Amino acid sequence: MPISASQSPTPGTGQDRTDSPEPTVTDRLVQANAQYAAAFTDPGMDARPVLKVAVVACMDARLDLHAALGLELGDCHTIRNAGGVVTDDIIRSLTISQRALGTRSVVLIHHTGCGLLDLTEDFRHDIEAEVGQRPPWAVEAFKDLDQDVRQSMQRVRTSPFLPHRDDVRGFVFDVTTGLLREIDPRP
Ligand SMILES: [Zn+2]
After folding, report:
1. Which carries the bigger pLDDT value, residue 13 or residue 142?
2. H/E segment holding residue 122
3. pTM over 0.70
4. What angle do CA 163, 164, 169 make, to 5 degrees?
5. Nearest-angstrom CA–CA distance, 185 and 151
6. Residue 3 Cα to ligand 1 middle (Å)
7. 41 CA distance to ligand 1 centroid (A)?
8. What is the distance in A from the centroid of ligand 1 to the CA of 27?
9. Distance 159 CA to ligand 1 centre (A)
10. CATH fit for domain 45-183, picks 3.30.479.20, 3.40.1050.10, 3.20.20.70, 3.40.50.720
11. Residue 145 Cα, ligand 1 centroid: separation in angstroms?
12. Angle 74-167-89 (CA atoms, 0-180°, nearest 5)?
């Protein structure tokens, strides 16, 4: 997740459609969807992932999970956030994934060059100073990728809400080589 600071335009300019006839990025996506839907045929799939696996990964734009893992449409759940960190909300999604939609395996993926490596909890304090309210969530920043993958594996393995905790594996994806490196759960 690359984080670039303070490059957004002044509110009310640039992205404001009333100021400019230029299509926004969302317009572009909607246009692409019309083309997608024109060629789309209902695959008749069940919502239950074919491979019974949930992949938890960072939201980083360079990480194409389906291509990197040889996944097809319908194969898995992909649950993503900043860092691929196992937060309460990730546990919520995993719980639904396992209990309501039949997944049994969990794959955790962090990656080299993650934006969270450059942050600290000061990020929250800075926001508080700016807006007058402290965000209720932890930034979950980390300095050691391998250790954070271990902590994420541990959070999954110790969650009382998850019925399937025996097949949990963690990896670091190298954004320069495309290769996964598996992390030993023992430090
Ligand atoms: Zn990242």
Report:
1. 142
2. helix 122-131
3. yes
4. 145
5. 9
6. 9
7. 33
8. 26
9. 23
10. 3.40.1050.10
11. 10
12. 65
